[in-house]
Amino acid sequence: MTVQHDQQRSRFVVPLADGDAQLVYAPFTDDILDLQHTEIPPSGRGQGVGDGLVRAALAYARERGLRVIATCPYVQAWLRRHPDERP
Fold this sequence. Notes:
Number of strands: 5
Helix content: 25-40%
Shape: globular
Strand content: 35-45%
Number of helices: 2
CATH class: Alpha Beta
Largest sheet: 5 strands, mixed
CATH superfamily: Gcn5-related N-acetyltransferase (GNAT)
């Protein structure tokens, strides 16, 4: 699986046959990134697509020295399960 970064639309994307899986983000402040919404089409559910999207977003934040907040319930749950992954 390859996660693409669509900077123009502020999202991380995995193209699937039945639509794009995506994690949408927005700057909260200059040094905080808000991970706002995750959407996975049926063909990507249970396949690790959501995990890949979150990991790509966290890597992006880490590379830029950004902290993250998650207003997305999926990302909130993911971070509770993986507390050591938070930048």
